[in-house]
From TrEMBL:
<dbReference type="InterPro" id="IPR007214">
    <property type="entry name" value="YbaK/aa-tRNA-synth-assoc-dom"/>
</dbReference>
<protein>
    <submittedName>
        <fullName>Cys-tRNA(Pro) deacylase, prolyl-tRNA editing enzyme YbaK/EbsC</fullName>
    </submittedName>
</protein>
<dbReference type="InterPro" id="IPR036754">
    <property type="entry name" value="YbaK/aa-tRNA-synt-asso_dom_sf"/>
</dbReference>
<feature type="domain" description="YbaK/aminoacyl-tRNA synthetase-associated">
    <location>
        <begin position="23"/>
        <end position="142"/>
    </location>
</feature>
<dbReference type="GO" id="GO:0002161">
    <property type="term" value="F:aminoacyl-tRNA deacylase activity"/>
</dbReference>
<dbReference type="Pfam" id="PF04073">
    <property type="entry name" value="tRNA_edit"/>
</dbReference>
Length: 159
């Protein structure tokens, strides 16, 4: 697991600053409140297990990942599950509420939902539940080697 100091150093090498907060940023709503932005501008980093294999999806705070597009994009089959907290820590190196898209294990695929492109800057976690990192989608693509894909539907469109 990368420490906050390791993340700060890594991101500083890419001219990206880590913001820290006294208040918690563990949920999209809490992060938006701390940052002072809309929930949609929060880039939540989610771990899914698809047919027993872990994958990361980074999407906007107002979006929900859909199983079929995730399986199609990842090339995996089987049941799509949200893992338990211990699995999140084991697969990503970060605890739930602080999972960030940076310095993840090299064999963990990262997918970036197209919804992120709505904003010039989104705010991702920085490895703990009291931080945020302002980044562009281009920076996310570069630093995560993430693949852009349509994986989500708006929470307001959910029936």
């Amino acid at each position: 697991m990368a420490s906050l100091d390791q993340l700060k150093e890594y991101l500083a090498n890419h001219n990206i600053e880590v913001w820290e907060y006294a208040e918690p940023t563990a949920t999209a709503m809490a992060a938006a409140s701390a940052v002072g932005c809309r929930v949609a501008e929060i880039a939540k980093t989610l771990l899914f297990v698809v047919g027993g294999k872990p994958v990361i999806v980074v999407t906007c705070g107002d979006m929900k990942v859909k199983s079929s597009p995730l399986k199609q994009t990842s090339g995996l089959s089987g049941k799509v599950k949200l893992p338990q907290a211990d699995e999140v820590l084991r697969y990503t190196g970060y605890a739930p509420g602080g999972v960030c898209p940076f310095l993840l294990p090299a064999d963990l695929p990262v997918f970036l939902d197209l919804s992120l492109q709505r904003f010039p800057v989104v705010y991702a976690a920085a490895g703990n539940n009291h931080s945020a990192v302002p980044v562009s989608v281009a920076q996310l693509e570069q630093l995560t080697d993430g693949k852009l894909a349509a994986l989500c539907v708006s929470l307001s469109e959910e029936s």
